[in-house]
Amino acid sequence: MTSAWAMAWLILTPLVAAALAFAFPRLGRSLALGTAGVIGLAVAHLMRLVFANGVQTHLVSGWGAPLGIELRADGLSVLMLIVTALIGVAIALYSQRYFVSEHDDEALHRERYFWPLFLFLWTALDALYLSADIFNLYVTLEMLGFAAVTLLALAGTRAALTAALRYLFVSLSASLFYLLGVGLVYGQCGTVDLPSLAAQARSGPALWVALALMTGGLIAKAALFPLHGWLPPAHANAPAPVSALLSALVVKGPFYILLRLWFEAFPALMTPAVAQVFGALGAAAILWGSVNALFQPRLKLLIAYSTVAQLGYLFLLFPLAASREGGFMAWSGGLMLLGAHACAKTAMFLTAGNILHAAGHDRIKDLDGITHVLPVSVFAFGLAGMSLIGLPPSSGFAGKWLLLNAALAQGQWWWVAVMILGSLLAAAYIVRMLAHAFTRVNEPKTPNPIPPVMEGTALALALLAVVLGFASPWAAELLRVGAPVVGPIVMGGSVP
Amino acid sequence: MNLHSPILLGILLSSFVTGLVIFFLKEESHRLRTWLNLLGAGVKLVLVAVLLSGVYRGEPYTFAIEFLPGIPFALGADANSVLFVTLSSVLWFCTTLYAVGYLEHTPHRSRFFGFFSFCVTATTGIALSANLVTFLTFYELLTVTTYPLIVHRGTREALRGGKIYLTYTLIGGAVLLLAVVWLHALAGPVVFKERGVIQALAGTRRGELQVIFLLFMIGLGVKAALVPLHGWLPKAMVAPAPVSALLHAVAVVKAGAFGIVRIVYDVYGAQTAAALGVLHPLAVAAGVTIVYGSVRALFQDELKKRLAYSTVSQVSYIVLGTAILGPVSTIGGLVHLVHQGIMKITLFFCAGNYAETLGTHRVSEMNGVGRRMPLTTAAFTVAALGMIGVPPLAGYVSKWYLQKGAIQAGEEWVALVLGASSLLNAAYFLPILYRAWFNPPPEHWPAEHRFGTWETNWMLLLPPLVTAVLVIWAGVFAESSFSPLVWVKLVAAREYAP
Amino acid sequence: MVIVSTPSTGDPHTMPDAGYRIYALAGVALFAIGFYSLLVQAHLLRRIMALNVMGSGVFLVYIALGAQTPGPIPDPVPHAMVLTGIVVSVCATGLALALVDRVQAAAGDAEPGEDA
């Protein structure tokens, strides 16, 4: 199977499955599992091809630029596809039993729309990571937004609907900013194709304006401080698997596009000042999100604010990866953090879903009894917390290690302080939740039973998050393929 | 990896697998759990014995897999490792037996023994780490696995104690991480090697290396209870006695002290560290801790708190020995790592016995316990006299070497510190002994439990007796070929050899 | 398939007809007005309309840019993009209206409620 087929399967399978799941709701669960299997195989195959032969491209139907759609897979795309597939499989498994175990007449009604929307979301993500031009990215961004908003609105509660509407408004207006920017780019450069833009290597005030517009929109979609306000209510009020999808996957799409724009298409526009601004916003997100997480009464809100904070780490990649010497270290570190966060955050939201089902609420103060009854879920939460805090040997640690090394190699020690402070704050809010696991409880409350697959997927993802630190050399090697930044991956005594 | 690496993995896995299996055991399967525990501990002891003989003969033991880019996850066994791992394994065995007896009829034992085994795995990993990143990994894992043990009882005080513990240790861990990353930025991947690996940088990067050393000492000093980073230790006394025994004799404080030993000898190298001028401040910090801990201990009525401050003081003997240049003080410090371990664990075992059998938690309640529990009190006496430094017990040997080494290195003030400490030790231990043996017992003990023919549960009685015998043996047979001292002399020889 | 004439490289000095600039500016103005209204208006239906105005502004800019080419045939690429954009915009409006309907049913008025 060539890479073209692999890429095609990656996009078409979930799309067709979504349509089928809409038409035949009874098949929803099986279609999701089948899709997960096919996508898993396709991603593995694509990964092998990229490792062996470098960047893979395919022109859909043979139409070339500027009208045709090009699919492109380099190391970064493949890594994002792998993360998406991993989380997708976990959610597909978890949701097999999630809606059934909800004590709600509407639950099965919700489930019939969940599967097609979930598969549609997967389509949008795969298409996003395989797109090679910025207009196609707009289309996939919109698909992603629609799927996400609707999935959020599935919860049906007033809070969820309000949050969904707000998210929709933010998403639509942000997309329009992005689209305007794309138009200006086309006007200046005559193309929207990423590699061609990279080859042109332009600069100039018109491009500045275009990039500013696009970045503004993407930052809002990626919930970077200070445009993060829509995220906590949205992620906290969604059904648990949707919260996981939103935090782990949906907000990463716009971030990926930002990387492509600033590092690949217009690297000349990334001045040190701009990079530091990104970093500063990221640092603010880390501190603001973590501190807020400490004071949330509800578990899901705590986890949502934690997402705001962890997204800030990703933006630290900008000032650190821009340098020629330590760039690749920061690049791979930031992206490993992205993957680590996806696994850990999904595990956390799934755990929260389990707790919500068993206890009927997620008020942290009142969770004493429940944690004796769901030891597996709480253990999963603890393991996921380890990765979030950045304790070795987790993948969170590997990502932070590389970022710290990059910061020290370039003499930007202030990011070191921010990262370490962020880790300590993360520890504070994780322990706040875990302390309840050990409180003595006199009369054990009888909880609602939780299907084992729900606890199992949470635990599996948490274990992955903790153990994947060992996969970091492999991930770095993957990211080398077609990477827009250079530099060594190991420190060898090169502090200036 | 070589032919011997399975042994290294086996030593780690013996406790890890035990812990994993125990987590899944039902709460009611007492016998199975006890057997599993003892089996795991026994297997570990056997493997460690094999390792011991191998390292003595100079055989290499290594294991490495890729972890971070360019930095492997690496295990190894040099003389230092073997010292610590033997101590951990022997004392783990005793503590397991003790814990089984102590926690009888309490809830959540599967959870307890699961984390207990994980904690020992982390400690063993610290001992067997061959490079700095692997050490950091196990060091942080130790923090994570000991927290559930401290908060095991689930009371409000336990949770508060646990929170304080985590605050101290996680901040210490963050500082340690900073030191490790910074050193890697300067020197590339750092492995542990006798006499250090950074000599080349000492000329050009003097200031930075000094700051990094300070960060290391802060990061490690939290666990090693160096003043003023010791605050968590007395608060962690809310844990059940087996946990206190483990934490104070084997796992946490020794891990911190061992870390300091590693940094000074195997990362910086004793000579390089002295040349950088960082050893003297460390020695002063250790001296201050020794005196401060002893003074605080004097004013504690709660027995466990008194022992906690005594630990704060005594662990700094190890740091002091490390901080003074010269093979003799090195010997003194390192051998005290073993000696303090066995003495302190005996004391904590006995404290636990008093609490469990008689309900006495305070020194003021201990009048006449010697009559009621003679064997326990005999063990307590041996260990206490050892702590004071009475010959021919273990503590005397360590103090003798420390004194000699200090005078050889020209640091006479250390002799004063050690002398003061011995006096203070006597001041807070001798009254307890007097009370126990010579005061009449009260009418009723606070909460007495009878255990049949013996003075207490045999599982609570045997471990302190065994460790007390070890205290005697380590002292009396110190110069023979089967003592910790012999091994420590080997370590020192390899570190200081020309 | 019509052969696409490559558009100009963007150098303003070779623009044959600068009239497109009025349309481009108008598009930007619409975009700004729409965005402002989105931020300021509280009524949900008006916010949806504001989004539509923003969208129309963007499309106008695209079409104006398509007129940059020398000669009578405009660049069809931006037109294709605008068509795609219109489709997306229609879907978005539909989704937004459905959601507003649900929110109103849950809350009872068209003012957005407090954050949960």
Describe this protein with a few key phrases.
heterotrimer, A: 496 residues, 21 helices, C: 116 residues, 3 helices, disordered N terminus
The total count of helices of chain B amounts to: 21
Query: Would you list the SSEs of chain A in sequence order as H and E?
Result: HHEEHHHHHHHHHHHHHHHHHHH
Judged by helices, strands and strand pairing, the structural class of chain A is mainly alpha
Main-sheet strand order of chain A equals 1-2
The major sheet of chain B is characterized as: 2 strands, antiparallel
Q: Helix coverage percent of residues of chain B?
A: over 70%
Mean pLDDT of chain A: 90
Secondary structure: number of strands of chain A: 2
Tell me the total number of β-strands of chain B: 2
Q: What is the overall silhouette of chain A?
A: globular
**Topology of chain B as a string of helices (H) and strands (E):** HHEEHHHHHHHHHHHHHHHHHHH
Work out the count of structural domains of chain B.
Answer: 1
Rounded radius of gyration of chain A (Å) = 21 Å
Low-confidence stretches of chain B: none
For the biggest β-sheet of chain B, the strand order reads 1-2
Let me know the largest β-sheet of chain A: 2 strands, antiparallel
Mean pLDDT of chain B: 87
Termini separation of chain B = 29 Å
Structural class of chain B: mainly alpha
Give the helix level of chain A as a range of percent. Answer: over 70%
